[in-house]
Known about the structure:
Distance between the termini: 19 Å
Order of helices and strands: EHEHEEHEHEHHEHHEHEH
Largest sheet: 6 strands, parallel
Shape: globular
Number of helices: 10
CATH architecture of the largest domain: 3-Layer(aba) Sandwich
Number of domains: 2
Number of strands: 9
Structural class: alpha/beta
Oligomer: single chain
Radius of gyration: 19 Å
CATH class of the largest domain: Alpha Beta
Strand order of the largest sheet: 3-2-4-1-5-6
Strand content: 15-25%
Amino acid sequence: MPVMTILSCKILQDEIVHLLERDPAVNEIIVVKNNEEQELISKMDAAGLHYTLMDLEQLPPSPQRMDPEKFTVIICLVELALHEFPKTLKVEVYERIGRMTTYSDGILLFYGLCGNVLDKVEEDFRGQENTCPVRILRDEKRIVDDCIGATLGGGDEYLKTLKMLSSQGTFLFTPMYAHSWREIMRVDPEKPEKTLKMLRKVNEITGYKRVAKVNTGLNYTENFHEKVEEFAQIFDFDILELEGNQRIFQDCYASMKKLMGLPGMM
């Protein structure tokens, strides 16, 4: 039974649900319990996806899964707040890869360069290429910069967008980013106004005056527009709209399936 692990930042959970919902070749979905999965499984429930929730220690090692006709996907989410600490993020991701190798025939990272700390991840795990290859999100030329770059379609599209927005500082929000901005920006739930006051000052100093909604085409996260409007109102920002897509995620998922000897998406 070929087993693919998707090791992902929590902010890309919608993209995972979308892929699983569209791929009838998946016979089994396992979600690793680690206190990061609750929103994901709620969305999977709403989408009608069947899954098993397991502690990591409950997973059977890959060699014990001998049925070549079945395809299993394991989902392991990583804490969102780690993006603020790139070196810690690298340690955590590398440790997770090392642990998941035992249970997987291939590991697909739903990450970008993330401050360049993951730029060598495929090279660093090249020694297990024949047993459990590791791949990261990339376009036709290179690894994507981050989740926004992946959603916009890759490095060239991201650079073009940033140049277009260069006249004023602009936050780019996907639905999950909009949903999680307080967590990402570490707004103290006990004393939010203190943090928001500091953020307003930082935005003033750095020249941030706008927020752009990146429309991903996915509707798993509710109240996208309302969350962006809330953010804009708090900081007195203008709102722009940008179009994103799922091409990078679909292409990288299909490429990993092919590498594992499985047919493409649909």
